[in-house]
Specification:
mainly alpha, Rhopdopsin 7-helix transmembrane proteins, 9 helices
C-alpha cells in the first residue's frame, strides 16, 4: 500500500514541477506502480500456495531496476547534454546484475557463480555513477541541488541496494533449510523494495520541486 500511495503522490506532483522534470516524476510513479502490482500478485500466490515464485519478483525487477537507473540519466539530462553512452552503460550494468541474480535463484546456474556475476554488474553501475562519465557530468554541470540529489541516489544504490545481495546470501549461501531460506529472502527483499523504490522517487521529487520553485521566482 505504501507503493500505491507513492504512485499517486508522484503522478499528482507532476503538475507542480516544470516540464523538464515531469518525465522523472512519471518514471518514479511507474516504478512504484509496477512494484505494487507485482506485490499484489505475489500476495495472492502466497495466500493460495504458501510460496512466492521467484519469477514474479524478477519480472518486477527487470522492469523497475532499469527505470531506476534511467533516473540518473534523466536528472542529468534536465541540466546538461548527456551522451547516450551513459544511458547504455547503466542499462548494461543493470541487466548483468539482474541476469546473474535470476540465474542463481532459478537454479539455472550455480548459486555462488551467479552471485559473483550479479556483483560484477552492480560494481559496473557503481563505477559509472561514482567515477565514470555520469559522475563527471554531475560534478561539472549540475547545480548544487541536483548534485546533492545525485549523491544521495548514489548512496541508495550503494547501501540500499546492498540489502539485495544480503538477501541472496542468506537465502542461498548459508546452508539454511528451504523454509527458513524463503522467509529470510522475502523479508529482506520486501524491505529493500519499499525502502529503495520509494526513497529514490522522493529524492527526485525533492530536487524537481526545488529547481522548479527557483525558476518560478526568477
Amino acid at each position: 500500500m505504501a507503493l500505491v500511495a507513492s504512485t499517486a503522490f508522484f503522478f499528482l506532483e507532476r503538475d507542480r514541477v516544470v516540464a523538464k522534470w515531469r518525465t522523472s516524476l512519471t518514471v518514479s510513479g511507474l516504478v512504484t506502480l509496477v512494484a505494487a502490482v507485482h506485490y499484489f500478485y505475489m500476495r495472492d500466490v502466497w495466500v493460495t500456495t504458501g510460496s512466492t515464485p521467484t519469477v514474479f519478483r524478477y519480472i518486477d525487477w527487470f522492469i523497475t531496476v532499469p527505470l531506476l537507473m534511467i533516473e540518473f540519466y534523466l536528472i542529468l539530462s534536465a541540466i546538461a547534454k548527456v551522451p547516450v553512452g551513459v544511458f547504455w552503460r547503466l542499462i548494461i550494468g543493470t541487466l548483468i546484475m539482474l541476469i546473474g541474480g535470476y540465474l542463481g535463484e532459478a537454479k539455472y546456474m550455480q548459486a555462488m557463480s551467479a552471485f559473483v556475476l550479479g556483483m560484477v554488474g552492480w560494481a559496473y553501475i557503481l563505477y559509472e555513477i561514482f567515477l565514470g562519465e555520469a559522475s563527471k557530468i554531475n560534478a561539472q554541470n549540475a547545480p548544487h541541488s541536483v548534485q546533492s540529489a545525485f549523491k544521495v541516489m548514489r548512496l541508495i544504490v550503494t547501501f540500499g541496494w546492498a540489502i539485495y545481495p544480503l538477501g541472496y546470501y542468506f537465502g542461498y549461501l548459508t546452508g539454511q533449510d528451504v523454509a527458513n531460506s524463503a522467509n529470510s529472502l522475502n523479508i529482506i527483499y520486501n524491505l529493500a523494495d519499499v525502502l529503495n523504490k520509494i526513497a529514490f522517487g522522493l529524492i527526485i521529487w525533492g530536487v524537481a520541486v526545488k529547481e522548479s520553485e527557483s525558476l518560478h521566482k526568477t
